Amino acid sequence: MEKVCNQGTGDDKVKKKMSMAVIAAALTVSGSVHIPYAVAATPPIQIVINGVKLNTDQPAVMSGSRTMVPLRGVFEALDTTVDWKQSTRTVTASKNGTTVVLPVGSKTAQINGKTTTMDVPAKVIKGRTMVPLRFVTEAMGSKVDWNSSTQTVTIETTTPTPTPTPTPTPTPSGAVMPVAFVNASVIAQQGNGSDIQVIFPSSSSTTGLSQYRIFVAKTSDANPFTVSRALTIPAANYQAIPAGTTSAYTISLTPQSRDIDGAFIQKGTSYRVYVMAVGSTGYTSALTPAQSSITIGGVVSATATPSNVKLVDVADFNDGRDLSVSFDKASDESQVSGYRVFIVRTNSASSFNLSQATAMPVANYTAASKTGSNQTVRLQSTARDTSGMIIQSGISYTAYVMAINTANDGIGLSAMSNSITLGNAAPVATITKVADVSNFGDSRDLQVSFDKVSDESRISGYRIFVVRSKDSSNFNLTTASSLASARYMDVSKTGDSRIVTLSAGLKDSNGDAIVNNVPYCVYIMSRGTGSYGDSLSSASSTITLSASSKTVGSVSGVTLSDVSDYGDGRDVQVSFTKASDENLVSQYRIFITKSSSSLSLSQAQSMTSSRYTSVNKNGSNQTVTLTTGARDTDGDPIKNGVTYRAFVMAVGTGDAADTYALSSASGTATLSGSTAVLAVSAVTATNSGARGDASDITVSFTPANDAGVSEYRMIVVRSDQASSFNLAAANSVATANYTRIAKTGAAVTQALTSATRDNNGNAIVRNVGYRVYVLTVADGLVRSVNALSAASGEFTLTEKAVAAVTSVSADLVNNNSAIRVSFTPPANTAGISSYAIMLVPSGNANNFTLADANRVTAPNYKTATGSTYSEWSFTTMNTDTSGNAIRANVAYRAFVLSIANGSTATVNALSVASREATIVPQ
């Protein structure tokens, strides 16, 4: 985005400075007047929106004199809807009736259909669409300001008038207020009270409240459950919760919990849950029922329960052959003899339980044997759903998987899978995590992580829905497809799994604002393209936003590389981008799995320490090479010939409510005797700023290992082309366009020359950003594949000027027959070789510029050198700057030109004019 300046001093000043630089660069004055270039070190560009610093994974960069920022990060902070169209490489942003269309690479854009021109086109840098700041923010009605001293862009949006807070209804004297809602859900299948979780907010009463009581009543109980009845229930038949200062309560019942009749809570019975806000002496109590009844399943072993069930449409037979069900085996298969796969009609899926599954006729499920591995089961044409009907197109299905023992009893039923409707459905996305990441009190607090679909060519993008937990059992693809745009968030496909923080203003599926203290589930729709229909994921875990919530964030960008040839863990290098808030992270753990294995968060949490590598946080993204004794998650030593992938788990501090977060998997790599040399590291480009050409740049780097290395090549690449510069491009750079460095095992420091050219053969010019890469060239004997380093930081060649003198005076001496000039040198004389003292007729003095001074030739000025300066006199025997003799009765002003030495500085500086002085004829 554009670099922003204050009103009246902005782009015009920038352009004037650039124009003066171009004029000055073309001039050479006798007496060693040169114009070199340098760049002062500047702090990184910061973006502040409505007083809050914006942090993005791709920082703002300069393109010429314009500031470019990552589009999505800024737009989401401005509450702007963003859409990316890959086929035309076009970004469309909408807010409050204004629509801006930006084609990447073009200088023309449209605002509400009207074409306008930008100085700098939108461009892609490191996979992020970067846009000119001022154009977009002003087009969206925001105020933009630029502080050059702090390198800070400030954006202020128009803030709507706050809606007055309604005056709360006074609490009746002597009564406490009921809790606003009660959400009861089944979180396990142990067959007792521990299966039930109850969530409710605190009462709005601030006085008179003594405690809360949770009551569980059979749904079949014909007697109304009222406050008066609740007060008669014995203490053993309810759970009491002290009234505290928290704003919301999440309570799991115990295995010994009883219903109001005194019977233990058990499987197969339908219950209704109530919460009573109990008044202290003199205050009446208030009762709130749960929105719906619940039924728990049978007794199971948590370790004998399959997980991560996914249902995929894999063919177009319009029968069971279209369905493939994958699942993770039970973590403890010692009691498991096999599995059963159930296909349930989605409209019945929320009530399907272990008891129903155990009693299901053999014709209505598909058996799967125990293999010791995670499984994928392809159904047959005769497969039936749990209602006994043949599987067919046009019906929405959900899958369950049950583990059985040798007695054919169900000992563990999975959670439900995603739902799909047969008939060319798009692949289904998998939600891996939902997290409360901020404290805005709205949708911006909710972050969703999901794995991309297996084949993104079948989809146009994703759509995220937030559904109240109490409504989730009725939320399906038909419901999702009918919702207005304010009730979902569109997310573009990128080829990678995603971590998305929801945008401000997003509504839930009911059209209500997303707020604290309400339980929600998240769904993701894969939007089919062409002949493929949409598909809907299964629900996420339940999340309740809280003003005090702190959730450790997951790392991203996990990569695994084969970097050496030891044949053990030292060959494995894992890189990752740190969690966004490391204040909540105590350490990271790196897990190496065989490519055929998966890793869930619960498995990672319970993994013994010998099967992962601990890494301390350091405030930066990390690259870690494992040790010789490193093992994979199966406990096997890491070795050649095996294909691996990596996961990284962030381990939270005690302040984090959600203390573990597991990354997505890296890509796979098979360890082998490598044919590639190792890339160098720590590539830096240091700019001396002395001459304004490539010779100002000194490059340093550290070789990794010179085994099989022939030479190194330093290659300069324009920053705006760096994102597409790769090993293939580096291998094709012509000999004249890189700097060759002989092979060495020590750190290298090498200065470029003024004749150095970039990778395309163009001269290194001023005011353009560049980066340096180092190509390690294989010798073709020991190793045969080259390796390219990461890029250095950006450098820009620019001008460096000396300081001007001060206190220039012109006084008459020798009976007014001569003009004496004196001045004070600048406090910083670095880079100054001498001074040129000049007289200019007063009539020309107001228009006398640095460019004019640079053109003055000897003997039309007097030269001063050294560190002591006294005075210089001009008489009618001398000449002015135009070469004319000094005359009596003509007024003159004196100027002093500080002349750069041409090495440490190359731009001259002109003083302000002295007062007038006029020689009197004798």
Automatic annotation (TrEMBL):
Pfam families to which the protein is assigned, alphabetical: Cu_amine_oxidN1
SUPFAM superfamilies associated with the record: Copper amine oxidase, domain N
Residue ranges occupied by any Copper amine oxidase-like N-terminal domain in the UniProt entry: 48-155
Classification via Gene3D superfamilies: Copper amine oxidase-like, N-terminal domain
InterPro entries associated with the record: Cu_amine_oxidase-like_N (IPR012854), Mao_N_sf (IPR036582)
Domain of life: Bacteria
This protein's name: Copper amine oxidase N-terminal domain-containing protein
